[in-house]
Every structure is written in C-alpha cells, then in structure tokens.
Write a structure and sequence with these properties.
- The chain is α/β, with parallel strands linked by helices and 143 residues long.
- The chain has a four-stranded mixed β-sheet with strand order 1-4-3-2, with helices on one face. Strands 5-8-7-6 form a four-stranded mixed β-sheet.
- The chain starts with 6 loop residues before the first strand and ends in a 5-residue tail after the last helix.
C-alpha cells in the first residue's frame, strides 16, 4: 500500500495575506479557496510540479486550535536550479537568503525564506531532478 504525503497544514494569522504571498510571491497554484462553514475556510495551494499541497485557513486547527502561526520550521522545497529559483523569488519580491553550499554533492546547496507569519522554509537544489522525476530518483536500482 502506498502512503502519500499530499497536504501540509501551515498555520497563519491572516489567510488572505498568506494566500497572496504563496500565490503571488512564490508562484503556488491556488487550488481551492472555499468558505466551508461560517467558521471554516480552506485555502489549498500547490507549488509548481509538486504532488504535495499546503492548506491554510480558518477553523482548521482542530479542537485545540493547532500550531501557532509562524511556529513551523523545516518546510522544504526542492528545485533543479537554485540560482534560477533565487532569481525568481527575488524578482517576485521575496526576502530570501543567498544560496549556500554546505556540501559539494548534489543536494548540498540551500537557501531560506519565511512567509509573512514567520513560518520558515528551505529550498534545496537537487540538480538530478532536472533530468529524472522523483519516482526515478527514489526507485532502487536493479543492480
């Protein structure tokens, strides 16, 4: 049985501000923006090329309210060309760190940014993804 990670709920304080940031600044596709009930609004956005989306909204944190806005760290996106991704984010007005190589191997270069609430994201360069889709990269070799 496959278990796929398809949605991550990201805690935000202002749904419209966060939606606009993820859609307009990061270029995520807006999949859903729906007022489900008087107390619940769901906004789902998907990064280009991703099989996993994020959900932001109102009334989606469960009975205890869920994590506090800005409390997430370690969210990570992967790109094939970090220099191009950096230039795109800067052009879109995102405050992003310069790429830093922490290891010379493929997958060893990162940059970071935060959303308007302070949720922290990393972007990792994994060059092999330009020529192989994820399912091929993760598939064990037949050797």
């Amino acid at each position: 049985m496959d278990w796929t990670l398809e949605v991550i709920v990201v805690p935000v304080s202002d749904v419209d501000r966060a939606r606009d940031f993820y859609r307009d600044r990061l270029g995520f596709k807006l999949d859903v923006d729906k007022q489900v009930t008087e107390d619940m609004r769901i906004v789902q956005l998907t990064p280009p090329g991703s099989g996993c989306s994020i959900v932001i909204g109102e009334g989606i944190g469960g009975p205890d309210g869920g994590p506090k806005p800005g409390s997430y760290a370690g969210l990570q996106l992967v790109v094939a060309d970090i220099k191009a991704a950096h230039a795109e984010l800067v052009e879109r007005g995102v405050e992003v760190s310069d790429p830093v190589e922490i290891a010379p191997s493929d997958g060893g270069t990162f940059m970071h940014f935060k959303d308007p609430d302070g949720n922290a994201w990393a972007v990792q360069e994994y060059r092999v993804r330009a020529t192989k889709p994820l399912y091929e990269v993760l598939r064990p070799s037949d050797d």
